[in-house]
Amino acid sequence: MLDRTDPESAIAAAAAAYSNWGRWGEDDVLGTVNFIDDAKRREGAALVRRGTSFSLSQRFDMNGPQKGWRRRTNPVHTMLDTGTDAALGNQGFPHGIGGADDVVSMPLQCSTQWDGLGHIFDHGRAWNGRPAEKVVTSEGDLVTGIEHMAAPVAGRGVLLDVGRVVGGVVGGGELPDGFAITEEHLRAAIDAHGVAVGRGDIVCVRTGHLSRARRDGWGDYAGGPAPGLSFTTASWLHRTEIAAIATDTWGFEVRPNEFDDAFQPLHQVVIPNMGLLVGELWDLDALAEDCAADGVHEFWLTAGPIPVTGAVAPPSTPSR
Q: How far is C-alpha 232 from the geometric centre of its chain's CA atoms?
């Protein structure tokens, strides 16, 4: 049982128990992504049968979920050249050629993204025990910048549709806000789907929170109450040796958090201590419908981040 009044002790105990510091050497920059080896990619590629493809990314849209918390806003899309400019001959090109160009200004966490290893610190320490001030400066993440993840994040994906399995017909395939997904719930989904989860897998957990936001409006989807992983799942996340985990929620873990005075305590354990790659704001609905239809919940998944040099939590456009 968690002592809701003592997050500090719970975080410290979990950090010590599930630390991967030094596991892949003192110079490591990949954390649990090291579990995705060539054999794992071949295993994932061998799952392709029908050739159906789904984007698992939300749109990068000016009408997105962000509300400005800590200066996180929705992307601003501006046209630099348009069809109007071309038709009016304002572009200065020869022989009738014209074109369109555009620019986007946005926080990197405004839509579907990965939390990189430089995103969260634990008492001033970054992944692998490095001093946070030596890792991320005003110039970006100088050590574990997300550019290192651009190539290796591809392999066997597994969908655990906890919303459908636990929420069921009564819940419409959606878990209520504040619902803490425990190891028991994850195992229930694994058993219901008849799928294994293990070393090197990229696990996608659908809660149905995005489905509800699409139907009812964004509301507090970004940063408000939400279903998500329980702090107690840290043991499962470490023991299974998965490479990464992604959810259809803003913050991956249950909100409100499970302690009286805490902010994202599971992040504090799994990112700087475990070295786990965490994905947020993924769109898993179409994938979930397809998996439910054919009963197959494992697939080839490519999910590399946009390699913004030194970024700590960049956009991704994962696809199955």
A: 19
Q: Is residue 61 domain-shared with residue 101, that is, in the same domain?
A: no
Tell me: do 95 and 150 sit in the same domain: no
Residue 192 burial class via C-beta count within 10 angstroms: exposed 0-12, middle 13-18, buried 19 and up: middle
Do 39 and 162 reside in the same domain of the chain? yes
Q: The whole model's pTM is what?
A: 0.96
* DSSP, res 203: E
Q: Which domain holds residue 94?
A: 77-105
pLDDT tens by residue, 59-92: 999 999 999 999 999 999 999 999 999 999 999 9
DSSP-assigned states of every residue in 93-136: -STT----EEEEE--TTSSSEEE-TTS--BTTB-GGG-BHHHHE
Other residues' Cβ atoms within 10 Å of the Cβ of residue 316: 26
Name the helix (H) or strand (E) containing 160. strand 154-161
In a domain, 53, yes or no: yes
Q: Does 156 share its domain with 200? A: yes
